[in-house]
Design brief:
Layout (H helix, E strand, L loop, with lengths): L1 E7 L6 H14 L9 H11 L4 E6 L6 E7 L8 H12 L9 E7 L4
Parallel strand pairs: 3-4
Antiparallel strand pairs: 1-4, 2-3
Helix pairs in contact: 2-3
Length: about 110
């Protein structure tokens, strides 16, 4: 079984702060933040979940919005939330920065 969730990291901020941050990020993107490469996402996930089968798609072609399917035996017996927490823990340093949004599907191989 594969579970899916789409997340745009915003933490505990208001909608106005989130929109203002996005506008600043878009304005500053060319100056300091380099887009994240799909192979970097895969590398970070596999560093945390070594047996993971990872498929990454760049949804907008901007290095900012990705879709990831992650299959791993480490997910067996875990809830969807726990599975996603494992993946997001691997990416937490990049979420909200280089990686703005990730549509995530998780599951166990052959499941």
């Amino acid at each position: 079984m594969i579970f899916q969730k789409t997340a745009a990291f915003s933490g505990n901020i208001t909608a106005e702060q989130n929109l203002a941050g996005r506008a600043r990020g878009q304005k500053d993107r060319g100056k300091s933040a380099m887009p994240m490469q799909a192979n970097d996402i895969e590398r970070l996930i596999k560093a945390r979940i070594p047996d993971a089968e990872v498929t990454i798609r760049d949804l907008a072609g901007d290095g900012d919005h990705y879709s990831a399917t992650v299959l791993s035996e480490a997910f067996r017996g875990k809830s969807r939330v726990q599975q996603h927490q494992l993946v997001y823990d691997a990416l937490k340093a990049e979420m909200g920065g280089k990686l703005h949004a990730l549509a995530l599907q998780t599951g166990v191989p052959g499941g």
